[in-house]
Specification:
single chain; 379 residues; alpha/beta; TIM Barrel; 16 helices; 8 strands; elongated; binds ligand LCLJCK34; binds 4-methyl-5-hydroxyethylthiazole phosphate; binds magnesium ion
Length: 379
């Protein structure tokens, strides 16, 4: 055995734990610590597999499946520095006083998410136990278990947000961005026409209007959409979204992050994030965003761009992300089939609808093309 000072951190842990089992095989304290580590390793790995199966088979989400899988592999890697033989030798399943203790709640799960959530909690508890008992080795491996525990919190947040957003955006395929345009009556009749045309989400987006006008428009938007069950989102401004009691806020890459925006709008409001690359889309999912805008897809009459994420980006997102994703930028009835062919079935549009001679009719045309049957036929 190398002198202690030359040993790698994981070897130090091994040797310390080996000493515990080899030199004091009957010391209940030593054997007990090994048993706790052995049981927690098994619990954490098994729990991660249950969570991975939820991301894979229930959500069908490649990104979150890969995240859970990575945690499982990193757990195995961290545990490779522990004395595996001694852990197994210390195992005494038959004599485990906890094996036969179970609560009524453990035998009942309301749905697949409850299964995954219970497993996440077990994973977190097991990682904490691993972290504490492996400190007996006095080395880095405890820190690795701590990092894994924090990553499991991120996974829980992203899974919960994805699951809830899939429900809240069920049937939301046409999302229209409107300016504060003209006077209040003009704005309100545009909103009514867009809802009649089948828009399922509306965003107040105006870079020119003053705050009082924006707040008045946001309040009018909320009043009109609430009765119809249409989502009302305010662009850029979590403060105005909160004051108007809108369903949520949309933020860009250089604006407030999800966490900060949520601090203002509260935990139940929607936070949407603009994404232009697959890395940004992944980050938005892990930050707990409720939906993402993906673009710019095509040249836009509403905003000018030097570069376009294009259809390839939509394909990347559709391949791995289940969080609701809206293609944005120059989308219209003519290029919609190209969007649908990427696997993206939701769009956020402005000019093609709000600037049309008949906004209601333009919305109706897009909404019809986005119905599940029509979208499937086009893709
Ligand atoms: C649904 C949706 N997606 C993207 C955007 C663009 O937001 P951002 O990048 O912050 O640009 P501005 O709209 O603020 O100019 C959006 N508004 N909505
Ligand atoms: C705000 C924004 N961000 C990316 S594209 C876009 C404008 C969308 O409007 P249009 O549908 O008219 O291109
Ligand atoms: Mg913005």
């Amino acid at each position: 055995m190398p002198p202690r000072s030359l040993a790698a951190p994981s070897d130090q842990v091994s040797s310390r734990l080996l000493e515990m089992s080899d030199h004091s095989p009957t010391n209940p304290d030593s054997v007990g610590a090994l048993r706790a580590i052995d049981a927690s390793l098994n619990r954490a790995a098994e729990g991660l597999r249950v969570v991975e199966d939820y991301a894979r088979f229930v959500l069908d989400d490649g990104l979150l499946t890969a995240f859970a899988k990575r945690l499982r592999h990193e757990l195995a890697d961290a545990s490779s520095g522990l004395p595996g033989d001694s852990l197994v030798k210390a195992r005494e399943t038959q004599r485990d006083v906890g094996a036969s203790i179970s609560t009524e709640a453990e035998g009942q799960r309301g749905d697949a998410w409850m299964v995954a959530l219970a497993s996440l909690k077990r994973v977190q508890q097991s990682l904490r136990s691993l972290e504490e008992y492996s400190k007996i080795g006095g080395a880095d491996v405890a820190g690795r278990f701590e990092t894994l525990r924090y990553e499991s919190y991120t996974l829980e947040k992203a899974l919960a947000a994805t699951r809830s957003a899939i429900e809240r955006f069920d049937g939301v395929r046409l999302y229209v961005l409107v300016g504060a345009c003209g006077d209040a009556r003009e704005f309100e009749s545009l909103v009514v026409a867009l809802m009649a045309g089948g828009a399922q989400a509306l965003q107040l987006r105006d870079k020119q209007a003053d705050d009082r006008t924006l707040l008045a428009r946001a309040r009018a938007l909320v009043a009109l959409t609430r009765q119809a069950g249409v989502l009302a989102i305010v662009n850029d401004r979590p403060d105005l979204a909160t004051l108007a009691r809108a369903d949520g806020v949309h933020v860009g890459q250089t604006e407030l992050g999800v966490k900060e925006a949520r601090t203002i709008v509260g935990p139940n409001a929607l936070v949407g994030v603009s994404t232009h690359t697959i890395e940004q889309a992944r980050a938005a999912v892990l930050d707990g965003a409720d939906y993402i805008g993906c673009g710019p897809t095509f040249p836009s009459q509403t905003k000018s761009f030097d570069a376009f994420a294009g259809l390839a980006f939509l394909e990347q997102v559709a391949a791995e992300v289940r969080l609701p994703a809206f293609a944005i930028g120059g989308v219209d009835a003519a290029n919609l089939p190209q969007v649908l062919q990427t696997g993206c079935s939701r769009v956020a549009v402005s000019a093609a609808v709000a600037q049309a001679a008949d906004p209601g009719a333009a919305a109706k045309l897009l909404a019809k093309a986005l119905t599940p049957d029509n979208a499937a036929a086009a893709s």
